[in-house]
Design goal:
- About 35% of the residues lie in helices and about 10% in strands.
- The strands form 2 sheets. A 5-stranded mixed sheet has the order 1-7-6-4-5. A two-stranded parallel ribbon has the order 2-3.
- It has helices at about 1-55, 105-110, 125-140, 175-185; strands at about 60-65, 70, 90, 115-120, 145-150, 155-160, 165-170.
Length: about 230
């Protein structure tokens, strides 16, 4: 009887030991699977953040330095196409979406006030122009947004602010929105908050009216727009 009881105890001990080994193995597998899921999630989040940062990177932005307040009545020969600063007409362009080219001399004045100027090749497919218009009318402040075709661009799309410019191939490029948010009424705006509208703003395209002659009386009055705010706000 003692031998049977001893054998039974030993058998139970072996069963308990085996059960503990199974429990440890199950726990190890569960923790391992959970850890793998966590590592996968962290990796996916990291990949997304790196991908997003790369897609919205503004490292390709060309930067220029121009003195502000150079108001002239003559046509100006600009170094950049389209221009991003320098001499400009006393009248600024009404910020709006234009389907024909506008005078650069007026547009540069709007840039001085904090506007973004989106230009595109005149032969850009209509679907891309429509997509570009959607971005222009839904990103940032519409009252500080210019958009117009521009002949002889070096890229299908070029977006400019005062002193900054970025070339793009596609209106769906996330860099376009990133540029608008950073530079519209940004820290380099010479006259932040000055209106891009008002009674003195030019509303015509270049084919409809030449540059205005120097007036004999009062020059245009620059006023502050009540809706102006720094970029990113």
């Amino acid at each position: 009887m003692k031998e049977k009881a001893q054998a039974r105890r030993e058998h139970l001990q072996r069963m308990r030991a085996e059960q503990k080994r199974k429990e440890r193995r199950t726990a190890f597998l569960m923790w391992g699977a959970g850890g793998a899921v966590i590592v996968l999630l962290v990796g996916l989040v990291g990949f997304y953040l790196v991908k997003q940062a790369r897609e919205t990177s503004l490292d390709a932005v060309a930067n220029y330095s121009y003195e502000a307040g150079q108001h002239v009545w003559k046509p100006v020969s600009y170094k950049e196409t389209p221009p991003v600063g320098g001499e400009h007409n006393n009248y600024w362009q009404q910020c709006d979406i234009y389907t024909k080219p506008i005078h650069s001399e007026h547009a540069v004045h709007s840039l001085e006030h904090g506007a973004i100027w989106i230009t595109y090749r005149p032969d850009l497919p209509k679907a891309q122009v429509d997509a570009l218009t959607k971005v222009a009318t839904s990103t940032g402040q519409l009252e500080y947004m210019l958009m117009s075709p521009y002949p002889d661009l070096s890229a299908p799309i070029v977006v400019s602010s005062w002193g900054h410019q970025l070339k793009l191939d596609n209106p769906d490029d996330p860099k376009l929105g990133a540029f608008i948010k950073k530079f519209q009424n940004g820290k380099d705006t010479p006259e932040p908050g000055a209106t891009c509208g008002g009674a003195d703003a030019i509303t015509t395209t270049a084919d409809l009216a030449p540059l205005p002659p120097e007036p004999q009386g009062q020059t245009p009055m620059e006023t502050i727009s009540p809706s102006a705010s720094p970029a990113g706000q």
